[in-house]
Amino acid sequence: MFGQKAQNKELDKFAELLAKSIESLFKERGEIVFSRKPVLTRSNIVEYEGRMRVAGMEKFDNEPTYISAVSFFSNARDMEKHNTLGVVVVYVKQDYLATIMKMLQYPPIDDESDDELRDSCGTLCNIIAGRFKSEISAAGYVELEMSHFVNFRNSSFGGVEFCRSEYDKYQIEFVIQDKKQVVVEMSMGPVPRAA
Prior knowledge:
Helix content is 31%, strand content 31%. The protein is α+β, with helices and mostly antiparallel strands. The strands form two sheets. Strands 1, 4, 5, 6, 7, 9 and 10 form a seven-stranded antiparallel sheet that branches.
């Protein structure tokens, strides 16, 4: 990712938009109170064979973690061709996932069931990505296409698709009940303005 890679000049703006949309979503759906403001950190994407590295356990000091990702595309044709414009990756500690889903008013899940935990993390990622997509449109950009979520436990050896012209991502940490409980990563290429 050296030299020739473009950089989305509005990446900071999109990170702030994502953080605010998650805060609003959590407060509206579950009246979740944050112990402090979300921490936004910009860093380089770690790329392996054209995909963004996804490692959940390092987000929470080697604790088991569920991960889900949703990709964004400029239009349906780009989605068919896997021309990814952006990605949102949600990381939740395994021992907190059932709690946050309950706080967001979802039915109770079996916290011993890998399938239910994966589905719950995917649901959480999907509502975060959907809210982000709506906020992007409301800010005057084109309406993006969204992929289905993909799930992982602890890490993904294959990584996730991202906009190959970008080399930076944002990590947003959410502290709830005085502990880092949810981490969201985002990278986004230049999004066209709506006509």
